[in-house]
Amino acid sequence: MEERAHCSLKYREGDFIETTEGLIFDVKGIVHPDDAVIAYVRYVPDQKGDRIRHGQRYRKIYKLTHRQHYLQQMYPHYLRFDPVFGLQISQVPHNAIQRHYLPQHKVCELIIGKATDPCEKQTKEFITKIMQISKVPQALLGVSGSILVNLYSSKSDIDLIVYGKTTGYRVRAALHEHLGTDDEVTPYPHIIFRQRFLERQRNTGISFDKYLFHESRKTFQGYYKKKDFFIRYVKNWDEIDIKYGDKVYTNMGFLKLRGVISDDAEAIFTPCTYGLTDVKVLKGPQVEPIAEIKSFRGRFCDQAVKGERIEARGKLEKVDGRNTTYYRLLLGNTLQDYMVRLMA
Known about the structure:
Number of strands: 20
Helix content: 10-25%
Distance between the termini: 51 Å
């Protein structure tokens, strides 16, 4: 946990920050303004909250729309119109940050300390398991989510971060080998996918069979000894080659398209990116080139494979760089967004 004096540190996906009012935000993405951090409020002080830390009760806010509404009602100064991303977005100025929670520090704390709480103990065991099966060093792993900020419950999942491209693909390969063949690391059963589909995906209009096809081949989610785990792959700092303002994004409205995935090298990372070719616009502006699909939401990671023909709907954005202009499809802004493989 870093104190306010260290707020000049870089911030990236998986980190958490706490404001001077006691609000706890989770950091989104890897690109931020010079004076603020793009982050979504997650835990707020509430006398009726079911999470307790140091005698203080907190409430968790789940849906993004509810988080936005909370800030609008209670702390509107954390909502800014961002000229780079072209929309009102939640941002926390550096001078409002009281603490910076780092996932890698939490791993050290768990490994070195004596984890007696069942949730922390199981998280420690899972970290050790990942290191054993993938041969990745502890320094490139992090723990995020409620465990990072000590606001977990008995039902909290294990939210693991893996840093770096090489490390990420190594962990992914190890999970592909062990998921379903290891008694401790198991995939979700059919009934869980059905439940998640009804809760999160039925508004997209896609069939359960298509949803099941995509989700069942992902290895970043499942059970560790019957406890949910979710893994996010995040680039190392020396692998991030874009800075805030290098590109400017303009909302061009709704778009539905079909195309072929030309590049999936960054499909596992958050944010995830897919190269796109052979594009046909089904609904929306007839523009070109629509060169990529991007998402800041974990549910679209590892969604498609190079060479697959897909159908997707989301928000069309014009991307203006220093020497180039192109278009991209952004997924995850609404519950209606999707990307599915077109079966032969």
